[in-house]
Design a protein that fits this description.
Elements: E1 4-6, H1 10-17, E2 47-49, E3 54-55, E4 58-59, E5 63-66, E6 74-76, E7 81-88, E8 95-101, E9 106-116, H2 118-131, E10 136-139, E11 146-147, E12 152-156, E13 166-173, E14 179-180, E15 196-205, E16 217-219, E17 222-226, E18 230-233, E19 237-239, E20 242-250, E21 264-269, E22 272-278, H3 296-302, E23 307-308, E24 320-321, E25 329-330, E26 336-344, E27 350-359, E28 375-380, E29 384-390, E30 395-396, E31 402-406, E32 409-413, E33 418-419, E34 423-429, H4 430-434, E35 442-447, E36 452-457, E37 462-467, E38 471-477, E39 483-486, E40 500-506, E41 512-519, E42 522-524, E43 526-529, E44 534-538, E45 542-544, E46 547-557, E47 562-571
Parallel strand pairs: 18-27, 19-27
Antiparallel strand pairs: 1-45, 2-5, 3-4, 5-13, 6-12, 7-8, 7-10, 7-11, 8-9, 9-12, 9-13, 13-14, 15-16, 15-20, 17-18, 20-23, 20-25, 21-22, 21-26, 22-24, 26-27, 28-29, 29-34, 30-33, 31-32, 32-38, 34-37, 35-36, 35-38, 39-40, 40-44, 41-42, 41-46, 43-44, 46-47
């Protein structure tokens, strides 16, 4: 008799978990999504993130709901519909569910889940075992897994790129897949505090474009009119050439110390609306535009984001409304203007700044005109030969491009500027030509604070790669296999009563690429939590009979270095 019998019978799972069909007639008549009465979690709603917040390289597409620092709270379907998509991955949204609500033309998204409801868990685990993979994505037909409003679809967690237990929740337009602000559908968000203004900046340029560097940024001193609510500039602001303004700010909701995003910005000049920004809907294709809408140099050097109140000509960001032009304002000598900038949160609390400008003669001169010409530069030393190619204005900077080699390190500067178009880098590694045996261990990476961060495995002595960031890069080498250690068991011990077996596998050089687990020669599902280097096997997936069993676990890093461990397990 075999010592192990699989309980994962794929066809049986599909039969038991897909037992009903979705029908438009089965839904009650509804016209709009109602999150006030039917939120996705049933604990007091506290926020660690709001919709449209400025995040690294993207706008936040939903809201982050706190879960009291714990995992495992039930997550509910907010309306009738069906499971249209399910995904399991180590990064990004982790374990995530997409529910379609056809009558509302909406899709709701529930991300960073710890686990799914039993019928969803059975379906996706069957798919994982069938295809022998942890990371998986499936699109489902309306008839496969219907859901009812208030039905538990999963449990809150901390999977993927989540840095603390919470539920990430989105509402999307079903046709365009554009995320929308969930608060407009009644999701409760108690907020009695106005947005906090941290800094106010003047930008001046000799060119009618938005140029942001330390050379043309001036912090404006403010005095308080009403504490934490209304401010005014301490003096009239002299302006010259072309100019604009930037604001650094955040909003706090009740019962939360998190610095969240606000909802609306209005810029008035002489009582006329000049520019308006309302954070209520965007397209995912607009995410890269965030770095062209903030003072990127300031962000790179201080980790603080200053939002610009006007946008450059080629920036089509849809948040902005009624902007008079895509250029900076032009100073007129002797002309005095009265300005007011107002920030509002979704609850209607406001903060504002009042100031006056006066045009003076002259322009703000900078080192060189805006942007760069076409780039085609070469660098060469005993170890490397490199060429950097880019189209005109790829590097958003007024500084000269710095492209040089030092040993095996290649530097592209300035290091704190926005790359608008990818840079093409071509490299010939002379040291690999001289020592071909090194090739199997070589990778190209960006030098970070603690280690070289993996970009690409080197396949030959000649490398062509596109870069979206400046910085320091070099060829690094990794011949060290990951380290594998059992966490909650040891080889040879009895595992009666163990619901989970946990293994730790860490690779400090390049990171984990793939992993496999086998029990008595049969593939088993390990779940991967990279934040803790943890791999977990649910022993209820299989039926273990008394006796000795063999567990094999193999892991491979991004350079192909492998580690394999075999453990003996006993069932009494």
């Amino acid at each position: 008799m075999s010592r192990i019998f699989s309980k994962i019978l794929y066809s049986f799972i599909l039969t038991i978990c897909i037992s009903t069909s979705y029908s438009q007639d089965s839904l009650h008549s509804i016209t709009e999504l109602n999150l006030k009465d039917h939120p996705p979690i049933e604990i007091p709603l506290r926020y660690s993130g709001t919709y449209g917040e400025l995040r690294p390289n993207h706008f936040h597409a939903g809201v982050d709901l706190k879960t009291q620092g714990r995992e495992g709270f039930p997550v509910y379907a907010v309306e009738d519909g069906f499971l249209s998509r399910i995904k399991v991955e180590t990064g990004s949204y982790g374990k995530v569910i997409y529910l379609d609500h056809p009558e509302l033309n909406k899709t709701t998204v529930y991300a960073h889940l710890n686990r799914f409801s039993p019928k969803i868990q059975s379906y996706i685990k069957g798919e994982q075992y069938l295809h022998q993979t942890y990371e998986i994505q499936r699109y489902l037909r309306p008839s496969q897994i219907p859901v009812k409003k208030g039905e538990i679809i999963g449990y809150s967690g901390n999977t993927g790129n989540s840095f603390g237990p919470h539920l990430h929740f989105e509402v999307r337009d079903r046709e365009s897949e554009e995320p929308m602000n969930p608060l407009q559908f009644g999701l409760e968000a108690a907020d009695h505090d106005p947005p906090t203004i941290q800094g106010f900046y003047l930008y001046e340029s000799e060119e009618p474009q938005v140029v942001t560097t330390f050379e043309n940024r001036t912090m404006i001193a403010l005095k308080t009119i009403e504490e934490r609510i209304h401010y005014s500039a301490t003096d009239t602001i002299d302006v010259q050439g072309y100019y604009s303004f930037g604001i650094q700010s955040f909003d706090r909701l009740d019962l939360s110390a998190n610095k969240n995003g606000w909802y609306r910005l209005e810029l008035m000049r002489n009582d006329s609306l000049i520019s308006e920004l309302t954070i209520d809907r965007f397209n995912f294709t607009e995410n890269p535009l965030i770095n062209r809408s903030i003072d990127y140099q300031f962000y790179e050097t201080s980790n603080n984001r200053v939002l610009l109140t006007t946008k450059e000509t080629s920036n089509p960001l849809g948040f902005f409304k009624n902007s008079p032009s895509s250029e900076l304002f032009k100073a007129e000598v002797g002309k005095i203007d009265d300005w007011k900038l107002t920030l509002s949160d979704y609850s209607g609390n406001t903060s504002s700044i009042h100031w006056t400008t006066k045009g003076i003669r002259g322009v703000k001169k900078m080192s060189i005109p805006f942007g760069n010409s076409t780039i085609n530069q070469h660098a060469n030393n005993q170890l490397l030969e490199a060429q950097l190619i880019a189209v005109e204005n790829s590097i958003y900077s007024i500084e000269d491009l710095d492209f040089r080699l030092s040993g095996d390190t290649l530097s592209i500067g300035p290091k704190d500027v926005l790359v608008r178009n990818p840079l093409l880098l071509k490299i010939i590694a002379k040291e690999i030509k001289q020592k071909p045996s090194w090739l199997s261990y070589a990778f190209f990476g960006r030098i970070g604070k603690k280690r070289t961060n993996f970009i690409r495995k080197v396949e030959s002595d000649t490398l062509s790669i596109t870069l979206r960031n400046t910085g320091d890069f070099h060829f690094a080498y990794d011949s060290i296999a990951p380290v594998v250690t059992p966490r909650n068991f040891s080889s040879g011990q009895a595992i009666n009563g163990y619901r989970y077996l946990e293994i730790e596998a860490e690779d400090k050089e390049t990171g984990i690429k793939s992993f496999e687990g086998y029990l008595d020669g049969q593939w088993i599902l390990f779940e991967h939590e990279p934040k803790q280097n943890r791999f977990t096997f649910d022993t209820s997936d299989i039926l273990l009979i008394p006796g000795v069993h063999t567990l094999e676990f193999e892991v491979e890093d991004l350079l192909g270095n492998k580690a394999k461990k075999t453990f003996s397990l006993t069932i009494n």
